[in-house]
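Practice set, problem 2.
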Amino acid sequence: MPQLTELRGSEVSEGLPDLPSVFTPIVALREGGDAVERAVAMAPQHGAGTLVWVRSWARVEVAVVLEPEQTLAAARPALLAAMSAFADAAGTHGPPEVPLTFDWPAGIRVNGGVVGAARLIAPPGCTEDSVPDWIVVGIEARFADSADGDPGRDPGRTTLFEEGYADVTPAELTASWARHLMATLADWQGRGVRTVADRYLARLDPAVGEGGRRGIDPATGDLVIERDGQRERRPLAEAVAA
């Protein structure tokens, strides 16, 4: 396995590759910053397209402001879109044989180990049947352990670098996620939310709702499991409440 010293030097923390003009402003935070928190603070003034990311060699952390036209309940599948976009971005850079899967609703695993999660934040006090002024979706994923870390100390967790993502930088993954997110949202707008749901479900841990038929309620993003004539609903709103 390659060592961290083989990473491409300072490239891991330099500026992002070029992004479409829809992303503006683009704000870079220093290591230790919280991209989602900053995007939430900027959302009321700067609106859709605001992108905040963290310059870091150790993790991928990025958040984008969206302005949905539907109610908060109907907009919540944006979280699933963010997850699928990350999987697509990672798939273009990582080993094709290494599986990337989801825990319900927002956990990300690579080769069975937890690497990160997605988040969705809406304006305080926005009800499920109201159209929010904005929402923020974000991704955080561990890219590499610190130089003095012990990768095996927690077998339930891993990093992208440890699983073979040695030929890409966090900045490149960040930009790739942003581009894939816009493509995923365009598919949603043009073909309906089912396209987002199907792509998410294809990566959802098979143990979730094992033995049942799984679906996503397009009106809420809830996970619906049908088994033996019974229907179980796992609300997305409760699972991702801030």
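Problem 2, part (b): a different protein.
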Amino acid sequence: MPDIIQSPLQPTAWLRKLYLTRAAFSFVWVALAFSVARQSPVLTTILLVVYPAWDALANLVDARMTGGPRANPSQMLNTWISALVTVAVVASLVLGLQIGLAIFGVWAIVSGLLQLATAVRRRKRHRGQWVMMLSGAQSALAGGLFVARQGTDAPVLQTLAGYATVGAVYFLISGLVILLRKPQERPVNPLAATPTASSTSCGR
């Protein structure tokens, strides 16, 4: 039943689509953060909540499309952490707590390390993972900087937008690496799968 046999190229094609989609989303998010959100507190709030929520969704779909939750523990853990960060951001905004940079900083550290772990695990099967390894390491470093800047006058949204810009570039590069260096399927020789006349006539 060939319709249930999964091609080995399907996970690679999915990762390419995921990385390019995440890059596009981040570029749009950054454009909004640096433009209309400057004059709109409501849009600022929405962007701050949407960013970790989107990350949670992307990690969840990634895990399900590349082997399932059991095969992707780091992705599932990243999903739950991003979801908790979304709740923490909402709570801090509702309560008026000025701890946004600290929340996003801790999240960037943990999610970056998990992204690094995921890329290390995938590096032998999928292209472009060296870019994801760099992205994860950079995320952890940026998170430390966020935590160190907590309590200063640094604007949370614009600071996070700079971080998101770098992440978008990493996703774009990784997606392009997979796209441009995608392994090609070998054509199936129909004669190889069809018994020859000599083999069918043999008495085995």
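Answer key, part (b): DSSP finds eight helices and no strands in the chain. The CA atoms of residues 5 and 11 lie 13 Å apart.
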